[in-house]
Amino acid sequence: MAEVGSTQFDPIPIGEIVKPPFFRLPDPSTMFARRAERLRSLADTHQLRAYLTFVADLSDVQHRAQSALPPPGSPSSADLARSRQFKMPPLDRSRFARNASFDALWDQLLAMVEQIAMPENANLALQRLRVSDAAAQAAMIAAVLDGTIPAAAPAEHAFVAATERRGADQDGSQQNISHVRPRPC
């Protein structure tokens, strides 16, 4: 009886072996539009149609905001060296600081979101977010970045996450990934 795995086959040369990229950066110019399209196609026959349509509309807002964004900044060479040395991501969410670009995106997205149809509770949460002070907004941004969204205010944080996600994908899409390599498990 032959041993398991003893049969060897010669490879069949059928063409060049293509190695897929380790990862792909997000493409903000199409990512949110494609997401909205997928959500709408799911909503057509789904019992959560209203919710899926709302999230699709929110994705459309994120897509439309793309054209007004200034070019993102890149991490400094020192930050990139630090991330490589300690095997950390090049965009460190713990070092996020609000700036004029983020504030402009924040104001623009929230104004655009006010124009879409949404459930009443989402509208109330949006209004609470719009009138919140800078300290409350900073706390919500920190909670989204840390993944510690309180159960008492998920809707407000969802709008914050939409803004943060839009900015992060814009920044991430501009990164030089030539130094990124897979880590052994």
Characterization of this structure:
The chain has helices at residues 28-43, 49-65, 77-85, 100-113, 120-131, 134-146, 154-172. The chain has 185 residues and is an all-alpha fold. The chain has a domain at 75-172. The longest helix has 19 residues, at 154-172.
Taken in chain order, the helices and strands follow as HHHHHHH
Query: Main β-sheet: number of strands, strand sense, barrel status?
Result: none
Describe the global form.
extended
Which range does the strand content fall in? Answer: under 5%
What's the Cα radius of gyration? Answer: 22 Å
List segments where confidence is low: pLDDT < 50 over at least 5 consecutive residues: 169-173
Oligomer: single chain
Distance separating the two termini: 36 Å
Helix content: 40-55%
Number of strands: 0
- The mean pLDDT is 81
Tally of DSSP helical segments: 7
Structural class: mainly alpha
List the SSEs and their pairings.
Elements lengths: L27 H16 L5 H17 L11 H9 L14 H14 L6 H12 L2 H13 L7 H19 L13
What's the quick description here?
The chain has helices spanning 28-43, 49-65, 77-85, 100-113, 120-131, 134-146, 154-172. With 185 residues, the chain is mainly α. The protein has a domain at 75-172.
